[in-house]
Structure formats: structure tokens, C-alpha cells
């Protein structure tokens, strides 16, 4: 997939809710949902290629948090795997300010964040397992950047596309992104037609039957 095509697919996915993208992936037997990760507000939304970061508990040497940030390209979604830890944070106010300044699309954390007010003031999309003030500095260390990470049994490669909104976050395999976007768009269209049909006087049961609602997630398997 060339850069222009990838940008087009990202734009298409950005216009879709994660619910429809998840349904499209279900129809293909693909698992990409990141259970337990939620936005700080319902307004946050982020879509872009993954920039993956892996942390581990710090050893004898002092660990650092956030030094990778200068290498993240604009439009990327940072995916941080801190093994789901909720006792130390791996994202704070300085990182939010820098990421927003650099045009980074958002951050998804398998762990927790802090300095929430800064993120809200910057309107920077942040998704995590929660919030906690205890610093990860000297408690965690960076072990890998731009390598495959696994969150909730979902393997995420740097080429994958991250989509996140009020319903949570998921990873779309880059090789199937156009296919998934097409199915999700059809799902959105079908659901809109069902609502329009009900508003025109049909029962919900009949509208769903006429428009194949119950087959939306399964017809492509």
C-alpha cells in the first residue's frame, strides 16, 4: 500500500465509528479490539498508523519515560504497552504538550496516565486503562520502539492503523484496512437505512429483516 492509498484508507476509517469497524473485522474473523482501554472523554477520537512502544520494569540502571517522543511522525497514534500496569504512569503533562505540538494524532496506553487536566486543555486524544499520579520514571524502562507489541492477545505492528473513539480502541491490520473500511461503510449505510425505514413507518423487526441486519457481521466469513 503506497503512502497516498494509506492516507485515503486512514481518512475513510477516521470517518467511521469503531463499532462499525469492529463489526467489519468480526465479519472477517479478525480480532483487533483493545478491551479495557478508554478515552479520557467521550469527545476524544484518534486514527492513524501505530507507533509502538514497549516498556518493562526498570532494572539496576535508571529508567526513563518518553524519550522516544522526538521520533514519532505527525499523524501517528502512539501505542504504549506497559503490560497493563496501573501502579505507575508512562504518560504525563510534558508528553501531552509535546505530542500536541508535533501533530501526533493521539496516544493509546496499555497502562495509566497522569496530568489529565493538561490533556483536556490541549484537547489531545488519550486512551488508557485509567489514571494514576505515581511516576514511572526509574520504575520502568524503554525496551523497544517500532516493534510488534501484544495487547489483549492483539498483535499490533507499526504498520497497523489504530482507531479510537468513545467506544474504545482497536487495531486494524494494514494489509486488510481497505477491505475492512469497505465493509464498515456498508454496515453504516445499512444501519442508516434501517433507521430511515422505521421513521417511515416500518417496524424495527421488519426493517432489520428487509435490510439483512442480522447478517451484517457474518456474511463475509
Automatic annotation (TrEMBL):
Keyword annotations of the record: Magnesium, Metal-binding
Chain sites annotated for binding Mg(2+): 115
One Pfam family per UniProt: RraA-like
Secretion signal span: none
SUPFAM superfamilies assigned to the protein according to its UniProt record, in alphabetical order: RraA-like
UniProt EC number: 4.1.1.112, 4.1.3.17
Main EC class the enzyme belongs to: lyase
Catalytic activity as recorded in UniProt: 4-hydroxy-4-methyl-2-oxoglutarate = 2 pyruvate; oxaloacetate + H(+) = pyruvate + CO2
Molecular functions per Gene Ontology: 4-hydroxy-4-methyl-2-oxoglutarate aldolase activity; metal ion binding; oxaloacetate decarboxylase activity
Binding annotation for substrate: 92-95, 114
Highest rank taxon of the organism: Bacteria
Cross-referenced Gene3D superfamilies: Ribonuclease E inhibitor RraA/RraA-like (3.50.30.40)
UniProt cofactor(s): Mg(2+); a divalent metal cation
InterPro entries linked: RraA/RraA-like (IPR005493), RraA/RraA-like_sf (IPR036704)
Family, as annotated: Belongs to the class II aldolase/RraA-like family.
Protein role: Catalyzes the aldol cleavage of 4-hydroxy-4-methyl-2-oxoglutarate (HMG) into 2 molecules of pyruvate. Also contains a secondary oxaloacetate (OAA) decarboxylase activity due to the common pyruvate enolate transition state formed following C-C bond cleavage in the retro-aldol and decarboxylation reactions.
Quaternary structure (record): Homotrimer.
Name used for this protein in its record: Putative 4-hydroxy-4-methyl-2-oxoglutarate aldolase
Organism listed in the record: Arthrobacter cavernae
